[in-house]
Design goal:
heterodimer; A: mainly beta; Immunoglobulin-like; B: 113 residues; mainly beta; 7-stranded mixed sheet; 4-stranded antiparallel sheet
Chain lengths: 109, 113
């Protein structure tokens, strides 16, 4: 099945800094999604981005499907951005999401 | 905004006991899922459900697990005889179309003692 690799595993930032998180895939990208898991454990769907670029406030994401990777950009980070960021891709049938191991982001003031 | 609701938020159970985790998916969604996350690890797929039957299940979803949609709104995960290693956060999710538009519930933290 598809393998999802995320980097870096951990990231520590000062408030106001920018960051880039990366997701690599072993197979074709069709249903790439980014999630944020906040410190309370909630999983929030950030982007559905099988290709191209999307922006939502200080967050944006780019997927280059032909090269099997996606990037999540966080600009002017805030303490509320802390948590774990997961990327996930659906299996071939679309019946399951396969998650990466996540990037743990800690933003301090 | 519509939500996926999970109850209870926390459950502590003795090893060997049966537990039922409950979920109310978004009303016009058609596909329902259970995922689990052992503390500090990644989110793992357990099972997907469509049209009143399982459409896919992972190796984790063995005979100790079952799912049911007993009525038009609830979706349940039953673990028949819990083991210590079943301790995890269990997430319910739903979507309207395969592959995208997932909404996850807030999770049930299950602790087996």
């Amino acid at each position: 099945g598809i393998q999802v690799e995320q980097s870096p595993p951990d990231l520590i930032l000062q408030e106001g800094a920018n960051s880039t998180l990366r997701c690599n895939f072993s197979d074709s990208v069709n249903n790439l999604q980014w999630f944020h898991q906040n410190p309370w454990g909630q999983l929030i769907n950030l982007f559905y981005i099988p290709s191209g670029t999307k922006q939502n406030g200080r967050l944006s994401a780019t997927t280059v499907a032909t090269e099997r990777y996606s990037l999540l950009y966080i600009s002017s980070s805030q303490t509320t951005d802390s948590g774990v960021y997961f990327c996930a891709e659906a299996n071939q049938a679309g019946t399951a999401l396969i998650f990466g191991k996540g990037t743990t982001l800690s933003v301090s003031s | 905004e519509p939500e996926v609701t999970q109850t209870p938020s926390h459950q502590v159970t003795q090893m060997g006991q049966e537990v039922i985790l409950r979920c109310v998916p978004i009303s016009n969604h058609l596909y329902f899922y259970w995922y689990r996350q052992i503390l500090g690890q990644k989110v793992e797929f357990l099972v997907s459900f469509y049209n009143n039957e399982i459409s896919e299940k992972s190796e984790i979803f063995d005979d100790q697990f079952s799912v049911e949609r007993p009525d038009g709104s609830n979706f349940t995960l039953k673990i028949r005889s819990t083991k210590l290693e079943d301790s995890a956060m269990y997430f319910c999710a739903s979507n309207r179309e395969l592959g995208y538009g997932y909404t996850f519930g807030s999770g049930t933290r299950l602790t087996v003692v």
